[in-house]
Amino acid sequence: MKTITFHYDFLSPFAYLAFEHLPQALAGLSFHVRYRPVLLGALLRAHGLLGPAEVPHKREATYRHALWLGHAHQVPFDLPSMHPFNPLAHLRLALATTEGGETNRFVTETIFRDIWRGGADPSDPARLADLATRLPLVREPGSDSAKSQLRANTAAAVAAGIFGTPTLEVDGQHFWGFDALPALRAWLEADRWFDTSAWRTAGDRPAWKPPGKS
Prior knowledge:
- By secondary structure, this protein is of the alpha+beta class.
- It has a single domain (2-200), classed as Glutaredoxin, CATH 3.40.30.
- Helix content is 44%, strand content 10%.
- A hairpin with a 2-residue loop joins strand 3 (167-170) and strand 4 (173-176).
- 30% of the residues are buried.
């Protein structure tokens, strides 16, 4: 049985969509999933990237694309009333349900659905307080241990070359984004295409650099 590590941030609509669609996308296969929260903003900064919502025209296109994917795949999906929002409280809350760095499916699902269904403001203190009552906490969300665990998860993801969420990791391979779920399934089915040079050497080519850039 293969183990998939699902790197996610509750901020990402595509992480939510991938989380909800994963059982259907991999139906019939034998696998185990480890859900690992990371801070998307820190991943982006580490790789010198901007999030889609930080680029005005891309922000609107991203929301429309996510809404379409929810509709097309029959995943209940509502944009929250504010986005982007600061996901730290939700990430620390998730990690407060475990002594380690991974969350179970119930916890991950409960928080994702609280944010991405109903169209409310995820940052509302009353909503966060109510959400906490529905989760099996084993430590305080604001504890140093929960905070340091999130930093450790994120640092490990950066060191592994992960630059966005969702990223699904299996056998040392990274499948990034909702659109990568079919490729993930093909990998788990041992599709022989992954043995070709097309996959293995995709990045082995020089990139054009503007004049004056070293």
